[in-house]
Amino acid sequence: MTQLLNAPAPPRTAPPEQRPPRRKALLEWIAVHTLGVAAALFFTLPFVFVVLTSLMSDQQALTRDLVPDTWQWENYRKVWDTPGFLTWWRNTLLYAGLGTVLTVVSSLPVAYALAKFRFRGRNLSVMLVISMMMLPPQVVVIPMYLFWAKQLDLSGSLWPLIIPMAFGDAFSIFLLRQFLLTIPDEYLDAARVDGCGELRTLLRVVLPMARPGIAAVALFQFFYAWNDYFGPQIYASENPAAWTLSYGLESFKGAHHTDWNLTMAATVLVMAPVILVFFFAQKAFVEGVTLTGVKG
User: What residue numbers bound the domain in which 233 lies?
Assistant: First the structure.
């Protein structure tokens, strides 16, 4: 009898109306993940279709088959050995790589000045940068072409597209400025107290802390230059030795308009570097883009 009295009371169970709605939570989980899977398939299936078609034979690529009967890996070798394809690769790497470096190097000091310096006309300068972002490139294409082609005689090359990147880019300046606003001024003041000048403060303090923002700007610029078709068409169309992959792919498609397997293989070779770069740098890219909107 004593043992029965001293026995612990059984745990209380919540009434049915107070229990967590497991069915509702399960349905929400299914709905969210179903939408995520559907969105992933929506963006992934076209790329899968391109890859599978690139591995088909010439005859099967013209059919409705979705999976290759035999995997034709030599299609990529045929595309790579196409005259001019390696030259297009080198030109695109030069345009995208050098252009990205010049854009970051020239835009970072301007963004630092607009974000951390106090001077008369700073707000007006920011408004000018924003207004330049809204200016369509088609508006200035004719005077710029006349300047580079007639005055400097640089038509038929990519230098009219690369050299202007050494003077800053409005979008990159604005994005970096928004990111630098998130860096506390106390770090900069501490560096100045220790005797650092503005250039040394920028290189030793601001640059390491602004790596996510710099990575976002670099990726934006790299993707833009890698996929640019309008610029090479204007300045380099008359010289096949200066073509980039985006412009050369159009010529390749015209020469192999019935060889869809080779066209898809060339498309995969053009897309692969961009996908790999974003895959390995997506964390820094997302972090940099997210933090640029913390302060205004």
Answer: 83-291
Categorize the per-residue pLDDT at 9 as very low, low, confident or very high, splitting at 50, 70 and 90: low
Cα–Cα dist 295/240, whole Å: 46
CB 104 within 8 A of CB 225: no
Q: From CA 275, how far away is CA 223, in angstroms rounded?
A: 10
CATH number of the domain where residue 223 is located: 1.10.3720.10
User: Are residue 152 and residue 213 in the same domain, yes or no?
Assistant: yes
| Any domain includes 4 | no
Q: What is the mean pLDDT of residues 33-59?
A: 86
51 token code pair: 């890859």
Exposed, middle or buried, 31 (CB in 10 Å: 0-12/13-18/19+)?
A: exposed
Q: Are residues 132 and 226 in the same domain?
A: yes
Under 8 Å between Cβ of 54 and 76: yes
Query: 228 near 161, Cβ under 8 Å?
Result: yes
pLDDT for residue 12: 55
Distance in angstroms (rounded) separating the CA atoms of residues 35 and 131 = 38
Closest C-alpha to 295, from 122, 115, 171:
115
Contacts of 284 (CB under 8 A, 6+ apart): 211, 212, 215, 216
Residue with tokens 């601001």: 206
User: For residue 153, which phi and psi values (nearest 5 degrees)?
Assistant: 55, 50
Q: Which of 53, 54, 112, 105 is nearest to 79 (CA)?
A: 54
- DSSP H/E element including 87: helix 85-93
Angle between helical axes of 170-180 and 122-133 (0-180°, round to 10)? 130
Could you tell me the pTM of the whole model?
A: 0.80
266 exposed, middle or buried (CB, 10 Å; 0-12, 13-18, 19+)? buried
Residue 296's pLDDT is what?
46
